[in-house]
Design a protein that fits this description.
With 367 residues, the chain is an alpha/beta fold. It has one domain: Aldolase class I (TIM Barrel), CATH 3.20.20.70. It has 12 helices and 12 strands. A 12-stranded mixed sheet has the order 7-8-9-6-5-4-3-2-1-10-11-12. Helix 3 links the parallel strand 3 and strand 4. The chain starts with 40 loop residues before the first strand and ends with a helix. It binds S-adenosylmethionine and iron/sulfur cluster (2 copies). One iron/sulfur cluster binds next to loops.
Length: 367
């Protein structure tokens, strides 16, 4: 008999129902944490499964075929997600991102999109609803996603070079199929697209300039992301991080860049435009230039735990409230209390010691 692999983030099963005082009041309106940061964005992991095994996210050594992914009954249902999103929206969330794992693996994801696309903010605006995907299933699904009400999509692509890309996704997935997914998304009207590239020194940094060149003039925005110490299984070392400043320097050497103002205060990506007007790129420097000071993001895990930071070691079980028959006022009270207590600023405090903490895996918490 094969040994059952215990998930490395097994502490997820031991987390408790939110310790919300019984008399916590249900807040009304916008929520602000202890550092004065508003709750504005919600990222929802709709599945902890993925068809890729990116070495920096779900390495095969941990996420093997014996890995115990969550059983279906543990996942939040679409109705449960919608109910939570309604409560979050009442408290200031305007932007919702579906992620995972690979969100397009979740059966009937189009139905969830349809449900969320019909929600409105208190000001009567539709939500800014988007999704991050590895692009492998977009060729088949882009049109249906758009028809369901999705407006935008972010696609991850770490290299154009076939050998490098296959080595990174570690399931031999061809670049051309992701490029076909990108083209399908474009045809379906999901453009302008954002293309995420996680840069690892010595692994794919030779692909920075080719990626910039390939998407220059396409209207799509490549965002170069510093490799982060998320989770507890990707073997992160500071030496593997190529600072964004170096990414920008390398591109600028070939295609001169000029700095752009952020689209809105607290935008995560630093914006750069090609001086010749052929488009823009983004640089996300979570390691070398942390942006915790403006962080307005909450994360809902696949099984309904609320995390107030990507690097959290513990989350709060909202599913227990949903399934325990509690009303929306109780959900509001829990969310309000948890956000009100929030002090997270992991990236600002990152050190050799924090890198070794048993943090929750990104595929579970939602990237
Ligand atoms: N499977 C989808 C995808 O790959 O786009 C969505 C989930 S994935 C966890 C979301 C994003 O997180 C991807 O763009 C991925 O490249 C990024 N990511 C994963 N692990 C990372 C790490 N260690 N450092 C930086 N970004 C990471
Ligand atoms: Fe899957 Fe996305 Fe993680 Fe790659 S980054 S293993 S595609 S969840
Ligand atoms: Fe936000 Fe935590 Fe990332 Fe800081 S480290 S930007 S608080 S998610």
């Amino acid at each position: 008999m094969t040994e059952r692999i215990i998930p490395i983030a097994d502490n997820r099963y031991q987390q408790q129902i939110p310790h919300v005082p019984a008399d916590a009041p249900a807040p009304s309106g916008l929520l602000t944490d202890r550092r004065g940061r508003r709750l504005h964005d919600l990222r929802i992991s709709v599945t902890d499964r993925c068809n890729f095994r990116c070495t920096y996210c779900m390495p095969k050594s941990v996420f093997s075929k014996d890995y115990a992914f969550l059983p279906h009954a543990s996942l939040l249902s679409f109705e449960e997600i919608e109910r939570l999103v309604r409560v979050f929206v009442a408290h200031g969330v305007e932007k919702v991102r579906l992620t995972g794992g690979e969100p397009l693996l979740r059966k009937n994801i189009e139905r969830l999109i349809e449900m969320l696309a019909s929600l409105k903010t208190p000001a009567g605006e539709p939500l800014d609803l988007t999704l991050t995907t590895n692009g492998s299933l977009l060729g088949r699904k882009a049109r249906a996603l758009r028809d369901a009400g999705l407006k935008r999509v972010t696609i991850s692509l770490d290299a154009l070079d076939e050998t490098t890309f296959r080595r990174m996704n570690d399931v031999d997935f061809p670049v051309d199929d992701v490029l076909a997914g990108i083209a399908a998304a474009e045809r379906a009207g999901l453009a302008p697209l954002k293309i995420n590239m996680v840069v690892q020194r010595g692994v794919n940094d030779q692909e920075i300039v080719p990626m910039a060149r390939h998407f220059r003039g396409s209207g799509h925005i490549v965002r170069f992301i510093e490799f982060m110490d998320v989770g507890a299984s990707n073997g992160w070392r500071m030496d593997d991080v190529l600072p964004s400043a170096e990414v920008v320097r390398r591109i600028h050497e070939h295609h001169p860049l000029v700095s752009l103002q952020p689209n809105y205060p607290g935008e995560v990506a630093e914006r750069w435009a090609y001086a010749d007007g052929s488009g823009e790129i983004g640089a996300i420097s979570s390691v070398t230039q942390p942006f915790c000071g403006d962080c307005s993001r909450a994360r809902l895990s696949t099984e309904g735990r609320l995390y107030t930071c990507l690097f959290a070691t513990g989350g709060h079980d909202l599913r227990a409230l949903l399934r325990g028959g509690h009303d929306d006022a109780a959900l509001s009270a829990a969310i309000g209390h948890l956000w009100g207590q929030r002090e997270d600023r992991y990236s600002e405090q990152r050190s050799r010691e924090t890198a070794g903490l048993r943090k929750i895996e990104m595929s579970y918490i939602g990237g």
